Amino acid sequence: MPWPPSDEQIEAVTAYLKTAFPGFQVNKKYEDSDMTYHFRLVQKGERKHELVVGRVIFDDHTSEEITGLLKLHEVAKKLRQTGPQPFRLLPELSE
User: Which of 75, 85, 86 is nearest to 12 (CA)?
Assistant: First the structure.
């Protein structure tokens, strides 16, 4: 997949997070400095969780594969454990 990620890839992550965290707002932000997307889960104006997804994940996987990775590695559970600290979806998890 060429960079930047497709709308479908971004939507795959957003949809997973909205399902796992109903009632939360999902804010997306691209960070050019390290080529990552930050998905911030906000509730009542406060950031509760943050998922960081790097370019390599988007480069190497389709939207369907990304959804599968998020489920396989129980990312929602990990986000709940880390609280407001960013959780980074690493390339090692995608293999």
Answer: 75
